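Table S2 (continued). Query chain:
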Amino acid sequence: MEAQDDRNPEVYSVPWLLAGAFMMLATAIVEKGLNIAGLSLPVVTVYPRQLLDWSVALAVFEIALTLRQMHDRRR
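Corresponding output:
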């Protein structure tokens, strides 16, 4: 059995989840700033706190998958 290299460049299991989480976080911040000024983004139909909740859920899911992948590599 061949030893695995821990310096594998593939760190994140699903990088698009992390990217989506950061995009929703940025959208929530921009939307909240616009709401304070009395404006809104035309493509956003939910409250900024819902975007924040969804971005946190995606980030937590990505963290869980990454930790699982790291745990499986250590075995």
